[in-house]
Amino acid sequence: MAPDGGVHFRVWAPRCERLELVLESSNGAAPRSVALAREAGGHWSGLVEDAGAGTLYRYRIDGEGPFPDPVSRFQPEGPHGPSEVVDPGAFRWTDAAWRGVPRDRHVLYELHVGAFTRDGTWAAAAERLPGLAELGVTTLEVMPVAEFPGTFGWGYDGVGLYAPTRLYGHPDDFRAFVDRAHAAGIAVILDVVYNHVGPDGNYLEKFSPWYFSETHGTDWGAGFNFDGPHCEPVREFVLSNVEYWMTEFHLDGLRLDATQAIVDDSTPHILVEIGERARAAAIGRETLVVNENEPQRVQLVRPVDAGGCGLDMIWNDDWHHSALVALGGRDEAYYTDYRGTAQELVSAAKYGFLFQGQWYRWQRQRRGTPTFGVEPWRFVHFLQNHDQVANSGRGERVHRLTSAARLRALTALLLLGPQTPMLFMGQEFASSAPFLFFADHGADLARKVAVGRRAELAQFVNLSLDEMERELARPDARETFERCVLDDAERERHAPWWRLHRDLLRLRRDDPWIATPGVRLDGAVLAEHAFVLRYFAADGADRLIAVNLGRTLHLDPAPEPLLAPPEGRRWRIAWSSEDPRYGGLGTPPLDAPEAPTSPPQKPTVRWHTENWRLTAECAVVLAPEG
To answer: Which domain holds residue 596?
Structure first.
């Protein structure tokens, strides 16, 4: 929007000879063409004084087209339709006092806007914000919203990087969602895809053949040209997108999808500049840039002056894979290198990645990089995310794959561990809705997507069987998407699960020592599926978390120093996953007092002379008495 009225249009199309702006009308009037002027560097521009917010337009390139704007702020008819002018200054923000969430105190919550509520809109999602704040969520990680084809999809095949999809509302509805989140004390980060664009509705190459790399490909198509000839405008296209989300939508950060596929052989790496641009744009606000990196390159979160990329956090698949094996004994595909033992879970709590350069049989190569010296909060731990739930074939949530007691215990480890925890929408109330892969494409592309999806799932032996393949949901079926929509009534029906998550997050937030950055942590294995973690407090008010994922365990003798209470004090149970409020069966004393001289008042209480008795499939938090 031009400051004195009208709209200034500008687009990069370095190899065309004539570029026209085509102004369209929603009332059926004939389109009007305006010739744009060539600038240095391959840009074309022009001021249209009678254009304004709501004006529909496209570009015609050397007589071909018209095509939507590569930096369109809104595509009201989808990626193949006209672009719409949006006035980014029209929305009235109320979050001037918002300063964000400290980087080391986040509790993430991943959600898909379309499946989060029955209406599937920003406005409907905003109504759920008070409940998420009460739960203890500090930060929403929103799955990609860049415009994509069809009427439903995960969003990772986006083609309009600057245009929030019309499926969830107007861009101002997105702004209102962020504004209300900030009012509720919740930060919002957006999942963005800078490794490729989707195949349907991608018109970037109509404007320039230099958008995509001639040397670096991805599993999903050509990657962006970050280091080849004429890469400077492409880099700025992505970096301006980073700045756009941070400034025009007041976002608190980004989650970068599949950074291993963002290839850049130049210096500085584009990931370094993405982090720097995000922080520079968020003036006065805390900023969070999370990244997913399947090879687990910890350099991504090391400081730039130490040879890293300076990003803030990285997803830890190792913890997820080990935890899922511990919960249900999975041993296929990428789970084959994990045993789900107490040692793995202790090591993950202490060091983050489990594979830090060891041989990884599944991939027949070394995996991971050393993490020593990296703060624990930089690792994002999760039991569920969009990929992992969908990769179960039927999209089954974790609570369907294990016992309730074991899941409660491992949830305690997730939410009380030193790493940054992340929940996936509905996890907090054991949602019965699956989360399946869904993408609304035309028939030909839909067939290709379905074939690709089956090939991806074939790494799981059971999912490659003919009888199971026939059971897999069709990604292009609307029913597949609709099955994934959360049932809000389950928040009440499954209240014990919600209380479990709320109470654990309150403990994480309010306890001065649990998961507090800088507090020393150690851990020890008690048995194959039992272990303890100890947070050491400066004043001796240590916290001990005991987790038993196996059978009832009698620790007698107990020659493990971490079990000993602070000198002169005794342990008391401060919290238990077997509390009846969570659906548990209660927790008997761990280190019982000396045997009484007369029978106890309640004959149901069992008095022990042994050291400890850890109830099967249970987690307890111990604090010193007094």
So the answer is: 511-624
DSSP labels, 188-200:
EEEEE--S---SS
Same-domain status, 219 and 136: yes
Query: What b/e sequence results for 259-283 when a residue is b if at least 16 CB atoms lie within 10 Å of its CB, and e otherwise?
Result: bbbbbbeeeebbbbbbbbbbbebbe
In this structure, the answer to whether residues 245 and 275 fall within a common structural domain is: yes
Distance CA 388, CA 391 (A): 5
pLDDT higher than threshold 80 for residue 596: no
Please say which residue of 471, 491, 509 terminates a domain: 509
* Structure tokens given for 287: 């900023």
Do 142 and 262 lie in one domain? The reply is yes
Task: Give the model's pLDDT for residue 601.
Answer: 54
**Distance (Å) of CA 350 to CA 368, 521, 620:** 16, 7, 19
Examine the fold and report which residue of 467, 483, 509 is the final residue of a domain before the chain moves on.
509
Is 77 a domain residue?
A: no
CA dist., res. 239 & res. 259, Å (int): 15
The residues, ordered by sequence, that sit 6+ positions from 29 with a Cβ below 8 Å of its Cβ are none
Residue 605 pLDDT level (bands cut at 50, 70, 90): very low
* C-alpha–C-alpha distance, residues 377 and 301, integer Å: 11
Name the residue among 103, 114, 128 with its Cα closest to residue 428. 128
Active site residues per annotation: 257, 292
Residues 467 and 586 in one domain: no
* Same domain as 384, residue 492: yes
Total domains in the chain come to: 3
Alpha carbon of 230 to those of 24, 236, 266: distances in Å? 32, 11, 13
What integer best gives the mean pLDDT of the chain? Answer: 94
First to last CA, the chain: 65
Task: Give the other-Cβ count within 10 Å of 546's Cβ.
Answer: 28
**HEC per residue, 560-611:** CHHHCCCCCCCEEEEEECCCHHHCCCCCCCCCCCCCCCCCCCCCCCCCCCCC
Contact present, 490 and 497 (Cβ < 8 Å): no
pLDDT category, 27, cuts 50, 70, 90?
A: confident
pLDDT of 482-527, one tens digit each?
A: 999 999 999 999 999 999 999 999 999 999 999 999 999 999 999 9
Distance CA 185, CA 349 (A): 28
